[in-house]
TrEMBL record:
It comes from the Bacteria. Keywords: Membrane, Transmembrane, Transmembrane helix. Coiled coil: none annotated. The chain crosses the membrane at residues 230-249. It comes from Adlercreutzia caecimuris B7. This is Thoeris protein ThsB TIR-like domain-containing protein.
Amino acid sequence: MNRPLHHSLSPDGAVHCVRRGESLPEYEEPSSFTYAAFISYRHLPRDTEVAQQVQKAIETYRLPRGVVAKQPGDEGNSAARSIRSKTSSSLGKCFRDEDELAASPSLPDSIQEALAQSRSLIVVCSPETQESAWIQREIETFIALHGRERIICVLAAGSSEESIPPILKTRMMPDAAGIMREMPAEPLAADLRPESKNKRKAELLRIIAAVANCNYDDLRRRHRNRKRRLITAAAFAILALIALISVLVHQTARSSEEALIAESKYLAARSQEQLARGERLQAIQSALDALPSSEADRSRPLVPEAQEALENALLVYPDPDQTWRPLYAIDSDSDIVSVAHDVDGDWFATLNDSGLIEFRSLSKGALTATAHLGDYAEHPEELTPSEWSLEATGDRHLLLMSQQANGSMVCFDALTGTLVWEHEQVCADSFASAQDEDTFGLTTFMGDGNLDVAVIDAATSNVRECQSLDLGV
């Protein structure tokens, strides 16, 4: 059986590595450590990935409240040596050499210093670990400095029998006779092999418990309690946020509803004003704008004022003393001197004292076309609109006639406002439309005391019949 590795103090105070026969520099256990752990591993992609996972887990973990990382043997010692400051809940940093070391009979000073300042040694174990002389030296050096209690094995691949270095499978223990002998030992190990992915979090927590030198079950319980508290706090925060959002949404909806009510009341008042001016169609539209589109429409509240305005505009409750109500009102820049409309109620036309002729829809009052009297007068500068008149004949013909001989007789298409025909220097004293609406009669008093009567085709302006009557005047 191989002679076990142990360390002893030489007379000069140096630590002596028995197996390798080397003397390490004088060493005294530090009161605090620079590194939480020294990670020893082969620089292979698989082992490197596991080493990185372990390093990240240790450096980012925050110990639950009430858990203190202590040195082995510090139980009951009020002056326990800590690997972290009293104000921090982290375990500290890990030392992980990212460079492959060159062949050398001894470890570099930087590696020995890091081992001396590391509280724990984490060995990433795989079948290739046995081939690394550097891992073997790092283990031996750490045992010589700190003993075996702080060494943690992490399986990255293979079985524990083929992956864990033999030096960690035995330790010196007294036999029944009190003689120190090398006995089989079961090192502390965590399983981070790919096939153990489902329990990776638990295994990382086991490593953290070993580095912190605290009970794994206690740490796991406190970890779960902290996670439960965090989840509860997050749930309360979410509930508070939902409540706040609900309040804001309610306030916004209330403000929006109040604004809509104010708008509906304004539209209802405008509808009443329009109705008072005779603008019944506009009043109906304003009242409709102030009301929801249907009973199922919740986008606008139902305001009684708007409902009343619509009832008034639609004559739901007519006044028996009022024989008629205006449909709409038309604003004109000048006084209207003549009006004509067809018998079917499709259109009407107006002539104002500025000479403007407007063609409109009779049902809605919408303007469809315009013309100007000056275009048809013999002397536009002497134009007197009151001496002209509009007459409707047929379903779509509008006649413009002058009572003086200085104008024309003009026929318009009343639906489009276009000119149909025109006769110059024609005056008319009276007009009558035939029942068939295809012809109209025209009378003109002549200066010799005669009265000329003509029947004219409205569509072509052809004279169908003409007579001159002697009035004996």
